[in-house]
Write a structure and sequence with these properties.
This protein has 370 residues and is of the alpha+beta class. Helix content is 27%, strand content 18%. Residues 217-318 form the Fe2OG dioxygenase domain.
Length: 370
Amino acid sequence: MSAPVATPTAAYDRLAELHALDATTSGISGLVATGLTEIPRIFRVPDPTPQHEAAAMAADDEESATLPVIDLAMADHAALVKAIGLAASEWGFFQVINHGVPAEVVSGTVDGTKAFHESTGGEGTEKARLYTRDLARKVKYNCNHDLYKSKVASWRDTLQLTMAPEPPAPAELPEQCRDILLEYSKEMTKLMHTLFGLLSEALGLNSSYLTDIECNKGQVITCHYYPPCPKPELAMGLGMHSDSSFMTVVFQDQVGGLQVLNNNKWIEAKPIPGAFIVNIGDLLQIVSNDKFQSVKHKVVLKKTTAPRVSIACFASHPTSKRKYGPIKELLSAENPGLYREITAGEYFALQHSSAIDSYKNKALEKLRCL
């Protein structure tokens, strides 16, 4: 029998339930391990079709558009630059194949992520050692970074690592995936260098431009784990949001669930074996002066007995003192700058001052000067 949905007047101590979840240091994985059959109230979506999404109807699976797929080994370099520029400006999302990241590094990272998240929690475990909400920690594990801000908790646990510009000591990383995460970080740095080079050229700039202004200097990796959900239609994997980074590179397993808002429709980012999903972040929209688009996306839960694993790598450097605004070489009388300058850290704080599931990108709008 389904758990009743409480009325607005019913006595309910949400904060106590949130603290109780935190106290387990085991996240949602720990709840599922107990044989959970119902959705705790903190995860229940009160309205499956919120008003702000009413106009964004899900596209029919058979007729929906698909994300652009870009072959990074394409022989025609000019065509490659053009393709990535169009994808960044028209979609803000695309998938890349033939990217050069060894398959064994990807599969090893996914396996290591599963091993960590599926390990036992509680006192004396790796999970307990790393469980924290201290933003200053380079390696941290928790359930929902915005747990105490969002109206509905996401059905997701996360291991987060700040790998650059100053990586953590290897011993800080969880033993289940320590070596493979260090290798994965190196591969992501190389892939992002390639992508920033192509995006620089797509803006009509020198290929090293975005790297020279340190867009690829910081790196944060988040290893997300979405346990099987007993009632996926009543919960959410991750609420609608955009990324505060310059760029994000994501590997999602074959379970899928990532959806992208395009032309007022939710488009499924269908898994392609071995491919990475790339999306433009808010900071790259700012420096490109809206040439490239940072768009809303979310994760929906699937009816499956398998967990979903995704590894997201963010080009983000929140401790940098460099100020970012529209690139001056892109501006003219006909194309004036649209944003005020801001540091990456200031922008991160501005965006994360509200819950992740806020409909409008208030941070970008606050920076607009026209």
